[in-house]
Design goal:
- This protein has 286 residues and is α+β, with helices and mostly antiparallel strands.
- The protein has 8 helices and 8 strands, in the order ααααββββαββαββαα.
- Strands 4-3-2-1-5 form a 5-stranded antiparallel beta sheet. A 3-stranded antiparallel beta sheet has the order 6-8-7, with helices on one face.
- Helix 1 runs antiparallel to helix 2 and helix 6 crosses helix 7.
- The termini are far apart.
- The mean pLDDT is 77.
Length: 286
């Protein structure tokens, strides 16, 4: 009889757990699904109508969606009997809470960093940024990670804390960008004419600004060439425009140098030493 009663208790407890679980799922679904498929799209429509920037809109929508999820879970726990079940297993719950606390330390740090990134008006979705030895276009910003589309067609997921701890360069944050490129000219060539050609080709390019005007300076005296550093400005920069304009400018200068006999020498090295035959080595040893 005791064994039968024990089995009845087990089945009764199991039925209670299943019932509480069903109530939990039902309450969570009633709260979360309307929020996910009605409120969040409505908020998206309103933000689009107000022309709110994607950098602010996307993280807010994700936070709103996550908020509905958290609210649904806590409400479902309160309404259902899951709370009493968790209280009965408080040792397991406490251990899980500690584990989650340690695991969420980095998550919290990335969340705080994400808030600062979203609030910073100098970094927006679609911007070209550089950090460490990497660069790419910001594709998405959330409160935990930033997704960057590299120029090798890779999608890099970067924790927000990494971006806030390191120096980030945003070449397109301003309306104008200064571009530099070094030209190595031979020591025997006419340096003044070489500098004039660089300025002339910059002025001839319609996409290079006249004000501030292009300039060129002697940067260093290299081993095999005099290094001329060219500087010019482009308007409303984007990464594709930057690469294209710089490439066209370099091609034009190279063509003028070839036409006027100005050399662009490659680095040269001199190797010195001696070679001895086996017979001579043997003779020296004897």
């Amino acid at each position: 009889m005791t064994q039968i009663r024990s089995l009845e208790q087990v089945f009764a407890e199991l039925a209670t757990v299943l019932q509480d679980g069903a109530v939990f799922l039902a309450v969570a679904a009633v709260i979360y699904l309307p929020g996910r498929y009605l409120v969040v799209p409505g908020a998206r429509w309103l933000m689009d109508a107000l022309d709110i920037d994607d950098t602010v809109e996307l993280p807010l929508l994700k936070a709103l969606n996550a908020g509905f999820g958290v609210f649904a879970v806590f409400t479902a726990i309160t309404v259902s009997g899951v709370a009493s079940f968790l209280a009965a297993t408080e040792a397991i719950t406490a251990g899980a809470t500690i584990a989650i606390g340690f695991a969420s330390k980095d998550v919290l740090g990335n969340f705080v960093s994400g808030v600062f990134i979203v609030a910073d008006p100098t970094y927006n979705i679609g911007d070209w940024i550089q950090w460490k030895d990497k660069e790419g276009i910001i594709e998405d910003i959330s409160f935990r990670v930033t997704r960057i589309h590299t120029f090798d067609n890779e999608l890099v997921t970067v924790p927000n804390s990494e971006l806030t701890k390191n120096t980030i360069t945003n070449p397109v944050a301003k309306d104008r960008l200064r571009v530099t490129f070094p030209f190595g000219v031979g020591y025997e060539d006419d340096l003044e004419r070489a500098q004039d050609i660089i300025v002339e080709e910059a002025l001839a390019n319609e996409e290079i600004l006249d004000r501030p005007g292009p300039s060129v300076r002697i940067q260093e005296l290299g081993d095999s060439a005099v290094i001329l550093q060219s500087r010019f400005w482009i308007d409303r920069p984007a990464r594709t425009d930057f690469v294209r304009i710089r490439s066209e400018f370099v091609e034009d200068v190279k063509a003028r140098y070839d036409a006027e006999g100005i050399s662009l020498p490659a680095p040269q090295r001199e190797l010195s030493g001696s070679i001895e035959t086996a017979e001579r080595v043997a003779a020296n040893e004897s």
